[in-house]
């Protein structure tokens, strides 16, 4: 897969220019409210002294890093606050590749397209390991693909686009494979608060100098526009990552970090539970409708996405545009996620119009 502007933007642009009403199931922007404490934090910030409007520490506000470290059970020095999980993944992959152990990056197929894009951008080579139909990854297949050439193994759980949640044993084995070749397992856990299965296992559970965990508040606090994420590095990899972060960004956004800290400190677990419940209801609504159309589909164990395969309607960009024009539903082409899902379309369930979209699809394909 090439290093180019992600397809996502082209689909969004096409949908916004359509001359009919289109339900957006393209983006991963949650449509539910951020916690009230986050809004309060922002309001409060506007009245702080002018010093608060200047650079924060490059690695992130100390109190926010402490809060993250306490929640994740790691040392505060291992935490770098980033511009979303996007930058966290970039720092992690760059760190893995610049160690000079190997330039190959093992990725899953299907894959979140930014990983192959980043791999190429960083001068690495992509190597894909197919998942099974449910999106699960077989550690033996990863073991077979791994070699002295392996610089990184990048995975995402709960997964975009398959909805798979990897069991603890998989995470453990992936870390062991990374250790064997002195490569780095990068585990992107940005959907950890949307585990619908109760089986989510963070790679942090496996202590190792060969794994980096990335995450963000973009999805968990419904603030993809704030750009606050983080990576947890092993002690010997963290300093160079902090330098790269500083050279690229100087620092992250101070008001955004302040508001996130306030939200973390004051938000009740019920907030996250309610959002999970809402998502679970939408999964039911959408997959029930797909069942009625006779489509094949994935039932996600986590994250925001359902993949569907309609007979005679492959997941090409052209068909996505056609679906926008003829059915008024915008999804993502499966081909954007790799060779294994070219027959599929991906729909994001972060719109209040899930039931209406399901009706439109049922009518169009029914
Ligand atoms: C798997 C995955 N990782 C990272 C990101 C980007 O997260 P952020 O907005 O925090 O940069 C996304 C966004 O959709 C994602 O799906």
Descriptors:
single chain; 366 residues; alpha/beta; Aspartate Aminotransferase, domain 1; Aspartate Aminotransferase, domain 2; 2 domains; seven-stranded mixed β-sheet; four-stranded antiparallel β-sheet; 12 helices; 13 strands; 42% helix; binds pyridoxal-5'-phosphate; pyridoxal phosphate; transferase; Aspartate aminotransferase; AspAT/PAT-like; transaminase activity
Q: Can you put this structure into words, describing what you see?
A:
Keywords: Aminotransferase, Pyridoxal phosphate, Transferase. Belongs to the class-I pyridoxal-phosphate-dependent aminotransferase family. GO terms for molecular function: pyridoxal phosphate binding; transaminase activity. The chain has helices at residues 7-17, 36-46, 62-72, 84-98, 114-121, 139-145, 168-180, 235-249, 254-266, 269-293, 317-327, 354-365, and strands at residues 23-24, 79-82, 104-109, 125-130, 150-156, 184-188, 211-216, 229-232, 296-297, 305-309, 329-330, 332-333, 345-348. Helix 2 packs across helix 9, helix 4 (84-98) crosses helix 5 (114-121) and helix 10 runs parallel beside helix 12 (354-365). Strand 3 (104-109), helix 5 (114-121) and strand 4 (125-130) form a beta-alpha-beta unit. The protein is globular, with a radius of gyration of 20 Å. By secondary structure, it is an alpha/beta fold. It is 42% helix and 15% strand. The chain is built from twelve helices and 13 strands. The longest helix is centred in the C-terminal third of the chain and has 25 residues, at 269-293. The chain has two domains: 7-34 and 270-365, Aspartate Aminotransferase, domain 1 (Alpha-Beta Complex); 53-266, Aspartate Aminotransferase, domain 2, CATH 3.40.640. The strands form three sheets. The protein has a seven-stranded mixed β-sheet with strand order 2-8-7-6-5-3-4, with helices on both faces. It has a four-stranded antiparallel β-sheet with strand order 9-10-13-12. The chain binds pyridoxal-5'-phosphate. The site of pyridoxal-5'-phosphate has 13 residues, from helix 4.
């Amino acid at each position: 897969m090439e290093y180019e502007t992600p397809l996502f933007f082209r689909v969004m642009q096409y949908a916004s220019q359509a001359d009919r009403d289109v339900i957006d199931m393209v983006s991963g922007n949650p449509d539910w409210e951020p916690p009230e404490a986050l809004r309060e934090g922002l309001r409060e910030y506007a009245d702080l002294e002018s010093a608060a409007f200047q650079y924060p520490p490059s690695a992130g506000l100390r109190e926010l890093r402490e809060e993250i470290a306490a929640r994740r059970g790691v040392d505060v020095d291992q935490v770098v606050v980033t511009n979303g999980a996007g930058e966290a993944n970039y720092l992690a992959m760059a760190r893995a590749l610049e160690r000079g152990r190997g330039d190959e990056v093992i990725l899953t197929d299907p894959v979140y397209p930014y990983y192959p894009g980043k791999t190429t951008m960083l001068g690495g080579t992509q190597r894909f390991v197919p998942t099974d139909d449910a999106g699960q990854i077989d550690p033996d297949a990863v073991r077979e693909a791994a070699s002295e050439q392996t610089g990184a193994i990048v995975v995402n759980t709960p997964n975009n686009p398959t909805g798979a949640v990897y069991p603890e044993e998989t995470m453990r084995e992936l870390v062991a494979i990374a250790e064997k070749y002195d490569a780095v397992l990068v585990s992107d856990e940005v959907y950890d608060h949307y585990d619908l299965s109760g089986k989510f296992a963070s790679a942090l559970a496996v202590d190792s100098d060969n794994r980096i965990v990335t995450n963000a508040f973009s999805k968990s606090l419904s603030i993809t526009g704030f750009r606050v994420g983080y990576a947890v590095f092993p002690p010997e990899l963290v300093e160079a990552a902090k330098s790269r972060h500083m050279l690229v960004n100087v620092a992250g956004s101070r008001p955004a970090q302040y508001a996130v800290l306030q939200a973390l400190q004051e938000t009740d677990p019920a907030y996250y539970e309610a959002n999970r419940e809402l998502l679970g209801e939408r999964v039911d609504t959408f997959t029930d409708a797909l069942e009625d159309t006779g489509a094949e589909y994935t039932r996600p164990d986590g994250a925001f996405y359902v993949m569907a395969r309609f007979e005679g309607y492959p997941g090409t960009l052209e068909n996505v545009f056609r679906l926008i024009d003829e059915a008024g539903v915008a999804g993502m082409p499966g081909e954007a996620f790799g060779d294994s899902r070219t027959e599929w379309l991906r729909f994001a369930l972060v719109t209040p119009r899930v039931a209406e979209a399901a009706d439109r699809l049922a009518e169009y394909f029914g």
